[in-house]
Amino acid sequence: MDANMNEDNQDPNSRMMKFDPTVLVVSHIRTTSRLTSTVTNSSESIINYPIQTIQCSIAKNGVEIKTVQASVGKKNQYYTKDISYTNEKMIGNGSFGVVYQANLLEENEVIAIKRVLQDRRFKNRELSIMISLDHCNIVKLKYFFYTHQNQQKGDIYLNLVLEFIPDTVSKVARYYVRQGTKIPMIMIKLYMYQLFRALAYIHSLGICHRDIKPQNLLVNPINGVLKLCDFGSAKHLVRGEMNVSYICSRYYRAPELIFGATDYTTKIDVWSAGCVFAELLLGYPIFSGESGVDQLVEIIKILGTPSKEQIKRMNRNYTEFKFPKITPHPWEKVFGAFTPTEIIDLISKLLEYTPFLRLDPLKLCTHCFFDELRIPNYRLPNDRELPPLFDFTEQELKIAPELNALLIPQHLHSQYSEYIIDSNSRDLIDSTTDLEHTLAVDEICSSPKSSNAESSRASSTSVGNNNGNNVKNPSQTISIGQSSSPSSSSTTTRFSLSSKQQQPTISSSSSSSISKAMKTDQTEIVSSSTSSAMQVASGNDNLGSISSNSDTVTTSTAKSVPSATVKIEQ
């Protein structure tokens, strides 16, 4: 670190492009400035990062090389270094900003650069949260730097240099839809397990992602590694602190958010994960409302009308209960009569009205649905080994020590013996809030039906063509049958579309009644014709993510200066 800091006093010309002697032209040179930091009484470090100028140079082969002084994206490592990258091209954009792909020369690897406009009125959380994270299932922040896009306007952009992961769960799902098949069950297990592991990690730090959806789940199609990305909406949730309810992409928005709750917990991420799980099983979003109130209608079609107690658990300030009575639609009819019991059990503990009854992510990792992943030497459909799934850190093993005996496969117990309290039974996952569920899981995981599912070594899928659209067709449902694979003696689960399955329906009058009932303290929360009163952030109710900047507004009116301030929580 000292060596890097001392380099700030060197002549900038002596530091440029040491690794590349082929540089012919340098457009301009910027002066460097030392990174400064101060510590406040609230134990927060306020880091003032200089606004950088990107240097452009041309190599002999005509390739443009961009060089910038970037800060290292690691907690408690506040130093800078010059990085150079080439072949920059835009690969995505949205309300959050723009994402570019580039080649990082020093490390000879492909990177992603997320460029986000910084609004001085709002508190930025993404950078401080990204710096604090270090987990194998979360996209890695390598470097970051600030730049001016238009110096006259004073616009400041945060540039996050991230590891590059080629695909998303959304792209993978669309591929199988276009092929007229379903994602292999083993891949669904692999993706969901890694998602729950990532959520367990950030939730243990008090961080709620608030925008879990297939587009934010990066996957490597070769080795099956999944990494959670886009922490633009993430926030440290503090008990008693108000949060915006208009957050999270609509299809994956938890019902307590629709009810306008501002004191929600990390369990909103668990609901979103349940929506992702259901979408992977069905091939389309399970709840695809066209507006905020319509989203609630879609949820009620399947879960039924929430009781007064459930509504109170979602938002204790909600006092109107004049909803039409809709009975729950059985999960067996949603996914098919022959759906394995462990799938029904898992989805029912994710898509649950009462937030605290949704299982914690780490407990979800111990569910018997994932037992297939714990089989020694199990392989992917492409005959590759499974990615590392049980390389738990000390921090992970301290989240809930009583779970470690179930979390760690039996054949690896000797490697983690000091962290295993008892390995005799599943009674370890009891708690005051979900003991009843624990006992149900015990029964399900020990049932003959579950044993057959666990012994399966491959999962192939086939469905009827839906014209490549990732949209729910009311006439299509999923039924499951069994067939034997010619290449294996084990049983293979196959999915097929059936038009005979009864779909949940709700009358237009009931939908209208739900819309009218959505009021809190005589103030309408949502309406099919007007924007939600809970939309404290500007923007339409669409599928795009809502920036967490809406949560806290700063009151500073100071003039723009060429530096950016970021709060990093210790």
Report a brief summary of the structure.
The chain is of the alpha+beta class and 570 residues long.
Account of the 3D structure:
The protein has 570 residues and is of the alpha+beta class. It has 2 domains: 2-164, Phosphorylase Kinase, domain 1 (2-Layer Sandwich); 167-498, Transferase(Phosphotransferase) domain 1 (Transferase(Phosphotransferase), domain 1, Orthogonal Bundle), CATH 1.10.510.10. It is built from 17 helices and 20 strands. It has helices at residues 2-6, 12-15, 126-132, 169-179, 185-204, 255-258, 267-282, 292-303, 308-314, 331-335, 341-348, 361-365, 394-397, 404-407, 435-445, 448-455, 508-517; strands at residues 23-26, 36-39, 44-52, 55-59, 64-72, 80-94, 97-104, 109-118, 141-148, 156-163, 167-168, 207-208, 217-219, 226-228, 235-236, 477-484, 491-498, 519-520, 523-524, 563-569. The strands form 5 sheets. The protein has a 6-stranded antiparallel beta barrel. A hairpin with a 6-residue loop joins β13 and β14. α5 (185-204) runs antiparallel to α7 (267-282). The radius of gyration is 25 Å and the shape is globular. The two termini are 20 Å apart.
